[in-house]
Design goal:
By secondary structure, this protein is of the alpha/beta class. Helices cover 24% and strands 17% of the residues. The model has no long low-confidence stretch (mean pLDDT 96). It binds alpha-D-glucopyranose.
């Protein structure tokens, strides 16, 4: 058993920390302009102008099965889809709004097709739900809202009733958790209870910000748990639940609770190229090595990894996303054993320079990820007497090793009692970040 205990939380996280790797999917009207999912507010687009996307939205090549198959092939075990993003557009057939996919030329309930298809592939199903809503008439204009700089913004804000909007969210969460089968994750996004910004105006309700009190987050979460008590909920509704979600950066150590310093259940979310929605002209696509490094880095410090795809407005994964997913597919095909059911290695193991360690939760296998390929030998201290057998994980080829020795090194080195030296082939194997699987005694 792994020695690490995480802070107890209301939801059920055992399956989650086993599965480790999921797919985030950001899809919405913003896939059409294809220049950031925040475009409505970034470019202050008026409602009348944004409406054209709604009127034309038709992802004619959308195939939920194809999405599910590529997630599965990449080694992902669960997915989280934006059922509604900040623009307010709903990808599901909600009874509480007309601003929904079934009223576009596409006409189908995409959330249903997604949930069914992913479940059929054996993947767990998660829903992202934006707390922010730049379409709803009761959502008060605030520091992030597209209308915040309009000449008549103050006028426009009059009569907006946050209580009505909070009720709308509860109703939609009820729909999402009752009409689509077993939902495993509810990913709220996001809160900004205070901000320092010149965009905040005196007339703005709640000081131009929003947090748990405005969302009525306690009620909202209670509503969700009354339907699905075990569901995993993130912390972004401004109330601590199950999941800490560092975004677009790689923590350097296991994420800890802000106050108690306990280890927590966490999930790093990342993009292939920077934005979450499909962004046609973005040139910042991560290299294959970066993609693999990030997955390994995350699991090596006890985290989950949620990698995002932003499908094109025609509903398919663009060639760059496919290429990136293929990188995971090729790697996971041979190396998934060092990811699933794995966590940070016990403290007795120190990663040699240029490596990361993961360990199976039963403690029996140690995985040495060669992030920087070593030349000829890999020394590992405090290891003598612990290794039964070692092999490359990708091809199961034996890695010879010797113990308590320094014979491989240049003159002057003395034998070290605790040392294991792995003999590494000088020709680097044809895989990114080769993994040595160590069978521990
Ligand atoms: C941010 C962004 C958003 C994205 C999310 C994913 O909070 O607002 O566009 O959906 O992060 O983590």
């Amino acid at each position: 058993m792994s020695v690490y205990q995480t802070r107890k939380t209301p939801g059920r996280t055992d399956w989650f920390v086993h599965d480790r790797f999921g797919m985030f999917i950001h899809f919405g009207l913003y896939s059409m302009p294809a220049r950031h999912e925040w475009i409505k507010t970034n470019e202050f687009i008026p409602e009348e102008k944004y409406q054209k996307y709604f009127e034309l939205f038709n992802p004619d090549l959308f195939d939920a099965k194809a999405w599910a198959k590529s997630a599965k092939a990449a080694g992902m075990k669960y997915a989280v889809l934006t059922t509604k993003h900040h623009e307010g557009f709903c990808l599901f057939d909600s009874a509480y709004t007309d601003y929904k996919i079934t009223n576009t030329p596409f006409g189908r309930d995409l959330v249903r097709e997604y949930a069914d298809a992913f479940r059929a592939e054996g993947l767990r199903v998660g829903f992202y739900y934006s707390l922010i809503d730049w379409h709803h008439p009761d959502f008060p204009i605030d520091v992030l809202h597209p209308r915040r700089k309009d000449a008549n913004a103050e006028e426009l804000d009059k009569g907006r009733d946050m209580k009505k909007y909070a009720l709308y969210m509860r109703n939609q969460v009820k729909e999402l958790l009752t009409n689509y089968g077993d939902i495993d994750i509810l990913w709220f996004d996001f809160s900004y209870p205070s901000r320092d910004s010149s965009d905040i105006k005196p007339w703005m309700q709640y000081g131009g910000c929003k947090g748990k009190d405005q969302w009525e987050a306690e009620e909202l979460i209670k509503t969700a748990r009354s339907i699905r008590p075990d569901i995993i909920i993130d912390n972004r509704a401004d109330i601590e639940q199950d999941l800490w979600t560092p975004e677009q950066y790689q923590p350097m150590e296991w994420v800890k609770h802000e106050k108690t310093k306990e280890l927590v259940t966490w999930e790093a979310c990342h993009t292939f190229s920077g934005s979450w929605g499909y962004y046609r002209d973005e040139q910042t696509w991560k290299s294959p090595k970066m993609l693999i490094d990030m997955l390994i880095n995350t699991v090596s410090i006890g985290g989950n990894f949620l990698m995002n795809v932003g499908p094109t407005s025609r509903g398919y994964f663009d060639y760059r996303a496919e290429k990136a997913l293929k990188v995971y597919e090729d790697w996971m095909k041979y190396n998934s054993r060092s990811i699933y059911g794995c966590t940070m290695a016990d403290p007795e193991f120190t990663a040699p320079r240029g490596t990361r360690l993961t360990q199976s939760a039963d403690g029996k296998r140690l995985y040495i990820h060669l992030i920087e390929y070593p030349y000829a030998f890999l020394e590992m201290h405090n290891m003598a007497g612990k290794v039964n057998y070692a092999q490359f994980l990708h091809d199961g080829s034996e890695i010879l090793f010797s113990e308590k020795t320094s014979e491989h090194f240049s003159e002057g080195r003395t034998a070290s009692d605790d040392l294991v030296v792995f003999n590494i082939p000088q020709i680097e194997p044809h895989v990114i970040d080769p993994v040595i699987e160590v069978f521990l005694k």
